[in-house]
Amino acid sequence: MTDTTGSSTGGPTGGPTGGIDPALLEIIVCPDCRGDLAVVTASGATELVCQACGLAYPVRDDIPVLLVDEARRPA
User: Fold this and answer.
1) How far apart, in whole angstroms, are the C-alpha atoms of residue 36 and residue 53?
2) What pairing do the DSSP bridges indicate for beta strands 37-42 and 56-60?
């Protein structure tokens, strides 16, 4: 995926945003506590981890699943 300047935005190949649109990452927050979310990729799986409460939300097909019931609780 490229933006209007022709530079890469991370797109479906992964990159630092895990394939999630960077503009989306700027506006979404944890649905549980409203904390900031960070993209974490481990073992080929991408998650959005809340920096406040620690909940880890899965990303499936480059789409964040921001449902508290789907989140992984911190260990």
Assistant:
1) 10
2) unpaired
Residue 12, both tokens: 């479906």
Q: What pLDDT, on the 0 to 100 scale, is given for residue 1? A: 41
Q: Is residue 29's pLDDT more than 90?
A: yes
Cα(56)–Cα(12) distance, rounded to whole angstroms? Answer: 21
CA distance 22 to 19: 9
Q: Which of 19, 20, 52 is closest to 37 using CA atoms?
A: 52
What is the phi-psi region of residue 36: left when phi exceeds 0, alpha when psi lies from -120 to 50, beta otherwise?
Answer: beta
pLDDT digits (tens, 9 = 90+) for 31-51: 999 999 999 998 889 999 999
Query: Which among 25, 52, 23, 54 is positioned nearest to 39, based on CA atoms?
Result: 25
Residue whose entry in the numeric block shows the structure tokens 């789409």 = 63
